[in-house]
């Protein structure tokens, strides 16, 4: 029979045991002594605070929260850069670095590569890409504007988009600007 008590060690709380006798040799796990011949120097790239500097001032402003595209299937995509929307969108060199986003549409009213949605200076802009059933901005007052294939149009914060017959919602970001109308690309 083995002594199982040696397999499990319990460290007592501080102050329960008497201190260890002093020793001239540093413990085996002690770090190497620090060089104390010169004053410490700040790491390269860091400024030394001025004498009397006050810490705890106001923090930098948070970055603006982007607008969010909400698809019918519940996906929520931040509109950062460009989003290429369609049934099975294919990236094109003339559209920049837009991210292809497949849009589910049971009615099949969404074209393969339908529209380009992008964020620019706190605004959400959309351009139709020659789709069969069009891209529409539906305003809160019921007005409907057809989106051009030659210029970007701004989507106001209170409006939603329709690709063909497929509605898409846009939730405004933290610092979205007021509507400015069509934007020539």
Primary descriptors:
mainly beta; phosphoprotein; SMAD_FHA_dom_sf; 12 strands; six-stranded antiparallel beta sheet; 27% strand; 185 residues; FHA domain-containing protein; 0% helix; Tumour Suppressor Smad4; disordered C terminus; FHA_dom
Structural shape: elongated
Alpha-carbon Rg, integer: 31 Å
**What about the largest sheet?**
6 strands, antiparallel
CATH architecture of the domain at 68-177: Sandwich
- CATH class group of the domain at 68-177: Mainly Beta
Q: Structural class of the helix and strand makeup?
A: mainly beta
CATH topology of the domain at 68-177: Tumour Suppressor Smad4
**Helix fraction bin:** under 10%
The topology string of helices and strands comes to: EEEEEEEEEEEE
Q: Treating each run of at least 4 consecutive H or I residues as one helix, how many helices?
A: 0
Average pLDDT, rounded to a whole number, is 79
DSSP strand (E) fraction?
25-35%
Low-confidence stretches: 176-185
Number of strands: 12
The CA-CA distance between the termini, in Å, is 85 Å
- Order of strands across the main sheet: 2-1-11-10-7-8
Biased composition (Pro residues): 11-30
Pfam family, one: FHA
InterPro entries: FHA_dom, SMAD_FHA_dom_sf
Keywords: Phosphoprotein
């Amino acid at each position: 029979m083995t002594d199982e008590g040696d397999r499990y060690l319990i460290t007592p709380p501080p102050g329960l045991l008497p201190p260890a006798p002093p020793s001239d040799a540093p413990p085996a796990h002690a770090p190497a002594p620090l060089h104390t011949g010169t004053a410490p120097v700040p790491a390269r790239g860091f400024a030394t605070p001025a004498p009397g500097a006050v810490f705890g001032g106001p923090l930098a402003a948070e970055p603006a929260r982007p607008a969010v595209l909400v698809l019918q299937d519940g996906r929520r995509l931040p509109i950062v850069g460009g989003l290429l929307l369609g049934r099975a969108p294919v990236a094109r060199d003339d559209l920049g670095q837009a991210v292809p986003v497949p849009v589910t549409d049971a009615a099949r009213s969404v074209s393969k590569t339908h529209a380009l949605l992008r964020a620019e200076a706190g605004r959400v802009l959309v351009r139709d890409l020659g789709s069969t059933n069009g891209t529409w901005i539906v305003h809160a007052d019921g007005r409907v504007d057809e989106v051009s294939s030659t210029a970007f149009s701004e989507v106001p914060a209170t409006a939603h988009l329709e690709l063909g017959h497929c509605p898409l919602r846009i939730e405004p970001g933290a610092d979205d600007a007021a509507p400015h109308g069509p934007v020539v690309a």
